[in-house]
Structures are given as C-alpha cells and as structure tokens.
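REVIEWER CHECKLIST
Item 1: Sequence provided? yes
Item 2: Single chain? yes
Item 3: Sequence as submitted:
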Amino acid sequence: MSSVTQQRQHWLDALMAANAAASEASREPLIQQGLPPQRQEDWRFTDLSALLALDPAALQPRGAAATQCPAPASGVVRLQLDGTGAALQLADGSAPLPEGLQLNHGSAPLGRPEGLPGRLHSLLAGPALQVDLAAGQRLQLELWLEPSSEQALLAPQLQITLGENAQLDLAVQLRCAGASLALPWVQAQLAAGARFSEGWLLQGDASAVLLAGSQVQQQPGSTYSRTAVVRGWALARQEPEVLQLAGAAHTQLRDLSITTGCAVHDLHSRVRFEGPEGTLDQLQKALVDEAGHSIFNGCVQVPQIAQRTDAAQLSRHLLLSERAKVDTKPELEIIADDVRCSHGATVSSLSDEELFYLRSRGIDRDTGAALLRRGFCAEILRELPPLLAAEAA
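Item 4: Structure as written out by the authors:
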C-alpha cells in the first residue's frame, strides 16, 4: 500500500472513530469506496491535501457566532445555528415557523448517496431542516450558518418538497473560520408548476474545506434556479445534480468562484433530461488569482426520449496571475436528434485594450483592473438574493 493510500485510509479511519455513533449503513459506503483516487476521471484535477490536513478528532459542531447581520424583512423566516451547532433555531426578528417546516436534531437518512460529499455527509450529524410546502404555498427562508470558532464541523441537510405551484425562495449565508469542514447537502422534489430559487454565499478561511452536494428532481412545468458564490477555502468542491423527470421544466444554474492563494475550487454539475422540451441555462465563472486552481466539469445528458431539449452551457475564466491554473470541461451527451444544445468555454486575462480605454479617461491602472474584475463578477452577483448580495459586495 502506497504512502498516499495509507494517509487517506488513516484519515478515514480517524473520521469514523470520531463519529463512532454513526450507523453501519452510513459507514459502509466510506468503507467500501474510501476517498476517490486521483486516477478517477472526475477527481484527477482535485487535490485532497487540504482535506487530509484536517484533524477529524478535533472537528466538532460549534454554536452560532455572535455576528451582526441585518434584520430579516417582514414575513421572512430566518434560521441560525443554536448554541450546540447541531440544530437550527429562529433568529431574532424572524417570522414564525410556518406549517410544513420542521427542525430536526441530527440528519435524516440520505439513502445510499453517490459522490464523496454525500458519503461523508451521511456519516456526520448536523443541523437538519425539512421543508414541505403544500400546493400554492409560498415561503421566503434565510439560513445564517456561521460557527463561532475554528475547527468547526458543519453538515447541514435540507430536505425540500414543493407541492403544485408552491414557491420557495432560499438564501444561505455559510461562513467557516480556521481549519473547518463544511458539508451542506440539499435534496429537493418539485411538483408541477413549483418554483424553487436558492442562493448560496459560501465563504471560508484559507485552511477550511467545503464539500457540497445537491440532488433536485423536477416535474414538468417546474422551475429551479440556483446561484452560488464561493470565496476563500483551501478546497471547495460542489456537486449539484438536477434531474428533469419528464422534461418540460426549466433549470437555471449560476456559479462564481473567486479563487486566490493556493485554493482549489471545483464545480462538477450534472443535468439530465428524462423527457422532451426541457430547458437549461447554465453559466459558470471563475476569477483566478495568485496560485489558485479552478476546475469545471459540467455534464448535460440528453437521451433519446428528451426531444426538443434546449440547453445552453457556458464556462468563463479570468486569469489574473501567471501561476493561476484552469481546467474546464463542458460536456454534452446527446442521443436525441431534435435538440438545440450549445456549450462553450473561455479562458482569458484582463484586456489591455479595455485597460487602455479606462486609462485614457483618467482612471489609473489599478482602479481600472478592479472595475473590470467587478464587471466580470456582476453578472452572477446580481442574481443573489438581497441579503447575500449585500454580504458579497
């Protein structure tokens, strides 16, 4: 057994020992599959050194940090970590909990999750939230997830079920300090005509690790939109997965990562159409500076049954340093023959022509470069809910 394999196995053993109360069903996937090797195609660019540098025995749920945040708007339900960090509670000024929203202590079963974020999450207890909206019901929900100290273990699980024409607007602020591990997980089922809009602002210190996953299933006529902004972290990997169960639904994905230092930011998305006339609008952007490494792998699957699918996928990277790295791989797997699908990827640096234009109008180079960076990010930032947009500014 190589030293790298031994290190990975030692880390997993330590994690399971620190969570000895976890069920055998949740431990089995980790025992069988372990940490993914670098020879595995979807992990060959992702360096797990930051994860292995964490001490599993020191990672513990931490209570909410005493931070100041704007009061929630009228009618908005806002939840935050409680004093233990293992459950959620109403924040000051929040609207009361509506019918169909439950706060569970400890995570609900995930079945047999796929992917490393899901396998790790199924082992760890964290705050769990169940949202079940009846037909036509509306809810504005905010989650403020900020542990009070370093070496935090934050594994929130959201289980969402939306009835016909129900609508959920979700805003999540997640911030971790020091050598922490965050494992957010979302499972959602959308009935016909349902609308689910979620925004995530994911911020972590330069030694923290984020492994996020989601599984969303859409019925015809439903609309799902997701906007996520990632900043900081030593390693941040997201694995959103969307399944249009019978097509004729709309999916919009917006992602932005601001990658500096030696951070590795990794987005692996998968959207599958199991029926005709579904639509997808996906845009991924990354601002990569210093020795940062940005990775994008977006898979769109259009089988024979998914005729008249309209899917657009675009990945754009802006390199600000000669040491920055990008690996981008948009994928279209198309079997249907009556479709309108496109994908593209661009990697560029700041334009000398644009900088010259700004300098010719009295704007110095540093200010001009800052304006161009901000303009690059603005297309994603303006999609965030107001609470997160103010924090991301």
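Item 5: Key structural point noted by reviewer: DSSP finds seven helices and 21 strands in the chain.
Item 6: Recommendation: ____
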